[in-house]
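Go through this chain for my students:
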Amino acid sequence: MLNFDEVTAAQVSQLVADKVNEGRNLDYKRELPSTGSDAKKEFLADVTSFANAAGGTIVFGVSEAKDANGKNTGIPDLVVGLQVNLDAEVLRLEQWLQTGVDPRLPAHRFHIVESSPGCKVLVLVIRQSWLAPHMVATSDSRFYSRTSAGKYPLDVSEIRAAFSRTGDLGDRIRRFRDSRLAAISASETPVPLSAGARLVLHMVPVAALERNEVPDLATWAKKSPAAIDGTSMGGHFNADGYVSYAGKEAQGRRAYVQLFRAGFMEAVEVCDGRVGAMPAFNVWGWDEDILKATTRYAKDLRDVGCSDPVCVLVSLVGVKGYGLPRSAMRDWGGEPIVMRDVVTLPDVLLEESQRGLEGHLRPVLDGLWQTFGIPQSLIYKADGTRDANFRW
């Protein structure tokens, strides 16, 4: 499969020069699909077959060599290019994908590539989907997958098995989160922590579960990522992978970031304070820290070989009896309200973690504030957009 984020003219030319055959992850099309309903169904079947299997690439504008009977062999012959308005065609095909696939595809990308002056091809890269199976939502409502021989319709038993795998994946992520929260509650952490409630951020690349995709620990160690609040003091390899931390050792560390060998990441921050007799969890300002930290960690995970999508899970540990410090600007907070020791906030899947992070994480941030009695995160305006002028 070609690079999801970038496809170059040299890569396309190399496919043709090397006579790379069509297969489970690659398909060539001389032309774009026409506007008819049959062409639409064929296009959607091709795309969903990749998403339901291991992902893949469709290259439009490349002809195939013919056999003695004039049939396509699957071997690329020539970059013929597409003599159409490709920007408009991408919009048309995106509309088909938005309305003709159920559930919607989580990760695909079109690339317009000029292979030579005046000769453009269109490359569609589709990632394997953890939301599979995807159905072609047309009159026949079929599910497709793919082998080296091409796409094929799934039978009833295969569809049932595909749905079972999807549900199991979400359960496995939550079981990992729950086991780690139990360890944190028992103070079984990679480094000793100081006393107080804990803010816990887990980031789980789906590929680590589906394809046993493992991270480059040496590269992660060179980065030694900072804590959620951006501070760092050091780090070291340990039995689980690599841990970096902040805070003085004698008093217990204030925060750590643990990357596990399996590709899962855990960041924990101690949030301890008091307002009179009330233990206080100072939520004011945590939205910004969570957004920034998630952005940093998503990039760090990609840099060490952990691909999107990434499941983000935020939890609070040891918060029973905690309240929100009163704001000097707003008449909120000032009394203990949390009645549970462990709170798990809504989990979010980042399909392309470098884009639209503020919108994706809003359910998490709303849940954080609701835990302390406030209706929603205060960094969002009524229309759901970010309020750049908001001040605490």
Observations:
- Residues 166-371 form one domain.
